[in-house]
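ESCALATION

Customer reports they have been waiting on this structure for their group meeting. Please prioritize. Original submission:
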Amino acid sequence: MRNLSVNKHLLLALLGLGNVVYAGSVFAEYKYNMTQGVTPISGEIYDLHMMVFWIVTAIGIGVFSVMIYSIINHRKSKGVKPAEFHESTEVEVLWTIIPFVILIFIAFPATKTLLALEDSSDADVTIKVTGYQWKWHYEYLDDDAKGLSFFSNLDAESNEARQLGANQDLSQVDHYLLNVDNPIVLPTNKKVRFLVTSNDVIHSWWVPALGVKQDAIPGYINDTWTYLKKPGVYRGQCTELCGKDHGFMPIVVLAKPENEYKEWLAQKQAEKKAAEEEAKGVWSLEKLMTKGEQVYNTSCAGCHQANGKGLPGMFPAIAGSKIALGPIADHINTVMNGKSGTAMQAFGAQLSDADLAAVITYERNAFGNNTGDAVQPSDIKSAR
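Update from on-call: job pushed to the front of the queue and completed.
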């Protein structure tokens, strides 16, 4: 009966090993494997990962095979006496040399990949990436794109759906929590360098398909790079626990051929110039309210809620608040410069004059406030 039990356990162990070997044959399609990526460096990372995986798998199979064999054939019931390896020079040398050789075999390709990962020199395009709670800011630093910068927020559809929560069929939302209003656009077949930092707390800029993950730390600039060979849309997220809305800080990279990328740059520059010209005029209350609602839902609703009632004990309500119903100058100062000791951010550097004028006007006239005040972009410009 004892031999039968031993044979039964041996059979189960062999079946387990067989499953491991079989699983390896289809591992490339296994959904829990590492993302293979679309860039040369992400391909190197994936190949290194798979090489190490198969090495440790072979080691595991070898070690467990020896253990199982020893348990079956050197058990006490067969009268086998324990071997004595104490102070054995041969054994000491053997179990020192074998791991050393394995580590050296892994170290060379790993070092090569790590050095390549850190080499951001000779970049064709340089972009500064700044993390905010809870959005990304992109600034293009090259001469042909100098002055081009914008914020990338969670898209309106995802933002609305997350606030509705259980009342919303999230399967109907396109790329829920992984879409943004302004994706970062990169040219293909160009080396792109990212200078990554933060304006408030630690964030982390991560796009798996690019093989890029770099921490954004206040007061420091880290750099990384990528090289995209084909157009496409690649998504990522902040991977640092940066606050209550950490899960709503996605990244969308849009790769375009060089000619389309240049067209996009020209279009963005034209839009920027048109917006600056428009901000010089006088806006109607209706126009300010329409624009203000868009800005509020993107930048303010996460804390103060879409209905303006805030979150009691955490974020104050806009509806009926002393700021929204008080002097306009105080309202402008609070939105532009934030409020020390609270979670209220300074939006002066984040929003344009027109956006600030519109959102302040909206807050003073929505949610039942109805002050009738119309804050103009020129008022914001004067307050800066």
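Sent to customer with the following note: Residues 1-30 have pLDDT under 50 and may be disordered.
Escalation resolved.
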